[in-house]
Write a structure and sequence with these properties.
This protein is mainly alpha-helical. The protein is 70% helix and 0% strand. It folds into 2 domains: 85 residues, Orthogonal Bundle (Hypothetical Protein Yqey, Chain: A, domain1); 66 residues.
Length: 168
């Protein structure tokens, strides 16, 4: 059963059971999926569906923070309940340490890329490889400055060997 079919079936079940919170959350997700399908003029793939659900979950995280800062715990609790519903459809989230280990492995595996004469501006290629590998399983995004600062982006052998790479 595809993820979209599962969402549809769960929405029907929530409607039968009278679960207003689940029904409302799933309707919002289904609307976001439908809007994306209309925009792209095609059915979405599983990865794209996961990206939409992850986006919705991220919005709930941000809303929770804002409501808690504003002293609206009732709204923060409602957003938390919606977030838990959304997280049930996402793959298990990896820890930052696990993602960082995977990222470092991708960097080390890119040795040939750097030895072929890559320049400092080519770091985006490595960054995109890391983001592709982490898609749907981590809260790390392209603008997560602390995460990106910790990564060398160049294999240690290349950086220490001084093989024409002056990007550090």
């Amino acid at each position: 059963m595809s993820l979209k079919d599962k969402l549809t079936e769960d929405l029907k079940q929530a409607m039968r059971q009278g679960d207003k919170q689940r029904r409302s959350t799933l309707r919002l997700v289904m609307a976001a999926i439908k809007n994306a399908e209309i925009e792209k003029r095609r059915e979405l793939e599983e990865g794209e569906l996961l990206a939409i659900i992850a986006k919705e979950a991220k919005q709930r995280h941000e809303s929770i923070d804002q409501f808690e800062r504003g002293g609206r715990q009732d709204l923060a609790d409602r957003e938390e309940a919606e977030l838990q519903i959304l997280l049930a459809y996402l793959p298990e989230q990896l820890s930052r340490e696990d993602i960082e280990a995977q990222a470092r492995q991708i960097i080390e595996d890119s040795m040939g890329f750097w030895l072929q004469g890559a320049k400092a501006g080519d770091r985006a290629e490595i960054r995109n490889r890391i983001l592709d590998a982490a898609a749907g399983v981590t809260p790390i995004g392209g603008k997560d400055a602390q995460f990106w600062r910790r990564l060398p982006m160049v294999p240690a052998e290349v950086a220490s060997g001084g093989r024409g790479i002056d990007c550090l």
